[in-house]
Design brief:
alpha/beta; 3-stranded antiparallel β-sheet; transcription regulation; transcription; DeoR family transcriptional regulator
Length: 259
């Protein structure tokens, strides 16, 4: 198991149980105690937890299922599912596309799965997407930042400048994630600051692709994004409850399950 996968599982256990112990983690992951201690040191350096004698606890008590973790921490949650969703989503991107990628822990790994020889223009309000673009070997990808005020917690660009600049673009595809998908509340998210850019790009794109792991269904975030019927393609993972996916049965939404 790679360290990022192990750390993802450790974070999930920490959120669920409120604490973790080195000895228990070593047994669970069949790893040495030194390996687990190294994981905990790296996670503490990233602000994801606080080490204790023999284990770790959340940085703050408010770090629970209902708390919105910083972007880097959210990237570790359901890590394997998000990677599979990104791989499947990358197959939908076509040579010559102009796409909008929002700022989320699900979409931020998408770039590394895009074909190396495609000419693609990416519009984004995500600092993490910009950083990922700097690691690409594909020089045919053009990345456009919408500009704005830097939000250090979410690694996003927000504000009047980003909102106004986003109005200039009409992408082929808007590829976004969300906080929740629910039959009654529709598509919702958690960031008031980022909603205007996301909504504008959805309105002005030819196709809306939503990436959502199994944990998003039946959940409702604080900010309304859009109606379920606006989703052209929904990409989720094999853990998604088939009963919850039935909410799309009356729409023309194409559902792809990333195995």
């Amino acid at each position: 198991m790679y360290s990022v996968q192990r750390q993802s599982k450790i974070l999930e256990l920490l959120v669920k149980n409120g604490e973790v112990e080195v000895s228990d983690l070593a047994d669970k992951f069949t790893a040495s105690r030194e390996t687990i201690r190294r994981d905990l040191r790296e996670m503490e350096a990233s602000g994801l937890l606080k080490r204790t004698h023999g284990g770790a606890v959340p940085v703050e008590k408010k770090y629970s299922d209902g708390y919105e973790y910083p972007l880097q921490a959210r990237g570790l949650q359901h890590y394997e599912e998000k990677q599979r969703i990104c791989k499947e989503t990358a197959r939908l991107v076509e040579d010559g596309d102009t796409i909008f990628i929002d700022n989320s822990s699900t979409t931020m790994s998408l770039l590394k799965y895009l074909p190396n020889d495609f000419k693609i223009t990416i519009i984004t309000n995500s600092i993490q997407v910009l950083l990922e673009a700097g690691l690409l070997e594909n020089n045919n990808i053009v990345v456009i930042s919408v500009g704005g005020i830097f939000n250090p917690k979410n690694y996003s660009l927000t504000g009047l400048l980003s909102n106004n600049y986003a109005r200039s673009f009409f992408p082929d595809k808007s590829i976004v994630s969300c906080r929740g998908i629910d039959e009654k509340s529709g598509i919702t998210d958690s960031s008031f600051l980022e909603i205007e850019v996301k909504r504008k790009m959805i309105d002005q794109s030819k196709q809306l692709i939503v990436m959502a792991d199994y944990s998003k269904f039946g959940q409702t975030g604080a900010v309304y994004v859009g109606k379920l019927e606006e989703i052209d393609i929904l990409i989720t993972d094999s853990k998604a409850d088939p009963e919850k996916l039935k909410m799309f049965s009356e729409f023309d939404t194409r559902i792809i399950v990333a195995e």
